[in-house]
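Sample intake sheet
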Amino acid sequence: MKTRRTVLAVAVSLALAVPALAQADTSYLTQYGTDNYGAIEQSNGSGSYASIYQSGNGNNALYAPDGDYEGVPGIKQTDTVSTSAAVQQYGTENSGVLTQNQTTSADGNVHQNGVSNYATVYQDLGANLSGKVLQYSGTENGGHVSQYGSTYSTGTVVQSGSFNYGDISQSAADGASALIQQWGNSNSGYTYESGVGLQSAIYQGNGYWCTDSSCSSYDYYDGTGDYNYAYVNQTGVAQSSRIGQFDSDGNYATVYQYGSQNDSVILQTGDYNGAGVVQTGYGESSEQQNTSDVQQLGSYSTAYLNQNGSGNDSHILQTGVSYVDAVQAGNGNTSYVTQYGTGATYSERNIATVSQIGSGFYSSVYQSGASNVATVTQHF
C-alpha cells in the first residue's frame, strides 16, 4: 500500500496521518484559512480512508500548481477495495476533486457549503461505486460526477440555491444509476449514460429532498424553483429516465433515448413548462418498445414527442391551456393525448397535432373545454 500527502497552507494548516493498520491506510488533512492546497494519494490498499477538510475561501483539494504533481486530484485512490474518500469545504470559490481508479466497492464524496464552488468526482474502471457531490446553501456552484466503465455504480449531485449546474456522466457502465436533485431557481441538470439497464432521475423545484449529507433519507420541501432545465441522454437497452419539476413555472425538460426497451417519464406541475422527448429504436419490432409518459399539470404547457422505430407507446396528459406535437415513425406505434382545457376563447385553446407514419398504429386524442383544435395524420 502507498500513501502520499501534500499540503500547502497560506493560513493555518493542521495535518494528521493515522498509521496503517493491517492493509488499511487512513489519512486526515485539515486546513483553515484561504488559498490552501491539500492532496492525498493512496494505492494498493483495502479499507482505506482519506479525508480533506478545508474552511475558508479560495481553497483547493488539489496539488499546488507549482508542485511536482500539477493537476493531480486532491484525493487519489488507485487499485483499492472497500475504500472511502471525502472532501469537505466551507466557504466560497473552493475547488474539490477526487479520483478513484480501478477500485471496487468504493465511496467518493465532495461536500461544499458556499458560493461559486466547484466539485468533481472521477470513478473509472471499477464496480459497485458511489460518487456524490453535495452543494448546499449557495449559488453558481458546479458539480460533476464521472463514472467510466464502472458497473452497478451510482452517481448523485445535490444542490440547493440558484444558478447551479450539475451533471453526471456514466459510459460503458451497465446497471448504473444517476440522480440529480436541485432546489431553487435557474438551475441546470444533465445526465449522460450508455450501457444496459441504466437509470436516470432529475428532480428540480419543490419535491423530495435529501435530509442528510449522505442522501440516504428524504423529506418534502416547499419553496420556489422556477426556470430550471433538465437534460437526459441515454444510449443502450432497458434504460429508465425520470424527470420531476415540481410546483414551479417556466421549466423545460429534454430526454434523448437511443436503443430499445427504454422508458421515459416527465412530470411537471406549474405553468409555462415545456417538455421534449426523442426516442430512436433499433432491432426487431417486438424488441424496441420504447415508452414515453409526459404529464403537465398546469397551464400554457408545451410537449414535443418524436419516436422513431416500431412498437413504441406515448402518453401525454395536460391540464390547462396547452400544446402537443407528437410524431411517430414506424409500425405498431400507439399515441394517447389527453387535454383538459380551461380556455373559453380561441386564443386560449388546446392544440394537439399527431402524425404517425408506418402501419398498424393507433391514435387517441381527448380534449375538454372550448375552442380546442386536434389534427391526426396517419400515413401508411
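Comment: The radius of gyration is 24 Å. The chain has two domains: 1-84, 85-379.
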